[in-house]
Design brief:
By secondary structure, the protein is of the alpha+beta class. It has helices at residues 47-66, 76-83, 87-92, 94-97, 114-123, 134-150, 175-194, and strands spanning 11-21, 25-36, 43-44, 73-74, 103-106, 109-113.
Length: 195
């Protein structure tokens, strides 16, 4: 069979398939058959395998949504108010049913993620990346390394969800270290001038 993307011959694969998308990040499907293009990496799943993958993605999606604190969700009545429509209209909205608003079903009720609902109201698509992007992880390890070099707690360098605020010298336990460093540099430059 030829690749649908580039026309090369697919290879038959079996085992654990890792898939990803922009909303949930990576998910894995175990013990499946799939076709993979060696040229462009395109993956084709059929029947059971596609169903298994969709189920694994759904579980990942649900666990990512469930990570939000309870106060981030609204029930149907408030969801309807936010959208300016009736409760029935929320229930019967095709796009909402198809997952364009992040939603958890618990004890027979729908809990809509408010942030997703508001985005849906603006753009008609309330989906956004729910997973921590690799860039963020890299930034975190960078911060850890910087904090380690300064000999302070990483929390003192880490600013969550906003632009960098100004940090006063008293925030740093290591203020005395930079003071010493500054004095050293000053003395060194004075010596040069004297000489
Ligand atoms: Zn291909």
């Amino acid at each position: 069979m030829k690749c649908m993307e580039c026309g090369s011959d697919y290879l038959q694969k079996h085992g654990t398939l890792t898939e990803h998308d922009e909303y949930v990040g990576e998910w894995q499907v175990h013990d499946v058959d799939w076709l993979e293009c060696p040229a462009c990496g395109d993956v084709a799943l059929r029947g059971d395998a596609a169903q298994k993958s969709a189920e694994a993605r759904r579980r990942k999606l649900e666990s990512l949504i469930a990570d939000y604190p309870m106060k981030s969700f609204v029930l149907e009545t408030e969801a309807a108010e936010l959208l300016g429509v009736s409760k029935q209209a929320v229930n019967q909205n095709r796009r909402i049913q198809r997952g364009f608003v992040y939603c958890l079903r618990r004890a027979g009720r729908n809990f809509y993620l408010k942030e997703s609902l508001l985005q849906f109201k603006e753009t008609g698509d309330g989906r956004f990346p729910l997973f921590e992007e690799e860039g963020a992880t890299e930034a975190e390890s960078y911060i850890d390394a910087e904090a380690g070099a300064l000999g302070i707690e990483p929390q003192k360098l880490r600013v969550v969800g906003g632009p960098c605020r100004e940090v006063s010298a008293s925030d740093f336990d290591s203020a005395s270290i930079s003071d010493k460093q500054a004095r050293y540099e000053y003395e060194e430059s004075s010596e040069l001038q004297e000489g």
